[in-house]
Design brief:
By secondary structure, the chain is an alpha+beta fold. It has 2 domains: 67 residues; 111 residues, Ribosomal protein S6/Translation elongation factor EF1B (Alpha-Beta Plaits). It is built from 5 helices and 4 strands; from the N terminus they run H-H-H-E-E-H-E-E-H. A 4-stranded antiparallel β-sheet has the order 1-2-4-3, covered by helices on one side. A hairpin with a 4-residue loop joins strand 3 and strand 4. The longest helix is centred in the N-terminal third of the chain and has 66 residues. It is rod-shaped.
Length: 218
Amino acid sequence: MNYDISPAENYIKNIYYRYQQYLAPVITVAVCLVLFFAFIIPQLQTWFTTREQIVQKRDKVSLLQGNLHTIANINDATVAQQFHLVTKALPVEKDFSGILHAIAQAGSLSGIAIGDYDFSVGILNQDTTKVDNKVLQMQLTTKGDIDTTLRFLTALKQQLPLSNVTVVKFDNGNSGSMSISFYDKPLPKIISNDTQAISSLTSQEQQTLQQLTAWDNQ
């Protein structure tokens, strides 16, 4: 029985017999490529991911060791003294006795006569997402000339708790009045963060503490 071979079939046969010696290598290469992309590359990606995680863990351990070293070298007595100082300068709650002592001390140093006073409470920061800085407004009447009043303002600036004189008025004669703001700030909630380094005080912060110490020792 004779079968007619179409030109297309004949062309395919010719191509097959001509290139059949290359079929096995091509198939082998194709299989290798499939295996490479299906298995080798994912394994490499997993290796790089694991290596990155190991590096991150090492960095975290190094950070924790550094924090531990910093904490171990902190003097508890010094920290307690600094905490007492800064909370005296900016109390965690309204310090009426401290305010009256500062006013009396500034009055004594300047020679001004302290008259009546009145307190009013306000809030400096209305952002509820943060710890509020609160302000206690004091209305104070005094008796003294301009030079005496200036000495009082200078002396009060160097008293703890810290204050800010916002308004000064002079009435008849040597009588005057002023508005003074005293601030307090509750302690923030302490949240442990093992990804952040514990740093020592900056030079500017140390200078601030030294200045507060000098004012506190007057």
